[in-house]
Amino acid sequence: MTESTKYLLSEDRMPRDWYNIMADFPEPMAPVLHPGTHQPVGPADLSPLFPDTLIAQEMTGERHVEIPTPVRDIYLLWRPSPLIRARRLEKALDTPAKIYFKYEGVSPAGSHKPNTAVAQAYYNAEAGIKRLTTETGAGQWGSSLAFAGSLFDLQVKVFQVRVSYQQKPYRQALMRTYGAECIPSPSDLTESGRAILAENPDHPGSLGIAISEAVELAARDEGTKYALGSVLNHVMLHQSVIGLEAMEQFELAGDDPDIIIGCTGGGSNFAGIAFPFLGAQLRGGRRRRIIAVEPAACPTLTRGRFAYDFGDTAHLTPLTKMHTLGSSFTPPGFHAGGLRYHGMGPQVSHALSLGLIEARAYQQLGCFEAAVEFARHEGIVPAPECTHAVKGAMDEALRCKEEGKAETILFNLSGHGHFDMQAYIDFFDGKLEDGDYDAAGAEAALAQLPQLG
User: Fold this and answer.
1) Which of 63, 147, 279, 392 has the fewest CB atoms lying closer than 10 Å?
2) CATH at residue 424
């Protein structure tokens, strides 16, 4: 009889609650600080940007938060997502390791991002909000919020990092199909954008700049709120459906991962796959290696400083303690646009500071080589972001081969690359280069970290 390849949950086994890692961290996280007073923020400080329910989720210490029925009903369009055994890749690598991946590319937007976009759109609509602003890098988040906005009759304005806007025209088309407006950032629609363009009319943009523009518009209009696709605690909470499903699927497979891998930019898909397993470990379960993989040209976890910093370039956001390269740092325009962010989510940063996870950085050429090999055996073309996770999983499988160990590896294939084929064209045509980390630029940006006295 043929061995199983896919492990599928029935719809009635989709999680009914999100999981919150805050309940299980052995040490509390550093508080979020007001950018002006440097005192811990309260709900009123966040109310210009977020509805009350999301503020409560951002601050809660409860282990479980119920998923509202309307959100679960929409999740059923693509959830539960499949857990797949990469048997052909295992054979090609001649490894004793078992390789599994959780495939989030089955969502309407093609990535994990709708897991939080739908939740955020729902809570904003419930609060009577009519308009949302946001930023996006590669466009996966912008596409997802555009999709969610269409379901709840919300107007969505997306500021896309200019270099990604130019690299990925079909992401713009997808956002417009869902009814959203997509604007290259920096733009002349905001004070922060105009100030940057005045200094450099050809600025390639950054997620920090795009965040500044989106926050600026939201803060000056009572009927508009801001939505963020990564970094914040409530985003990590919503993404936990990924790991919660995977835990049940491994029970179906009669297996259990020794190693869990995810790519990291702001940290949402990594947290989604890893935090439910990490929480079980912190409650007395078995220990696993959990590896966050990031781009070498924007190495927030491996080269950044764990310090208080702004989440945006114009310094409109609260201060969070995170691994950062400095809020004014502009990464080079490599193709994994979703990983080009100067800071890492506070929860992921905290986990690394406690020694609960590992971090490593890869150059993009090696990641694309791994992605092409994966695609030729497993049939799925990974998004440029999750090529890093593919590379990490393959490296671990080859290590198992060298050491003669039959370990079980799980990685999150957080999205497909069907809107990112120009990156693959550039790779095949020899136009992609490995970009060096701009150490001088990061050092200059880190010199501007806020002084908390």
Assistant:
1) 63
2) 3.40.50.1100
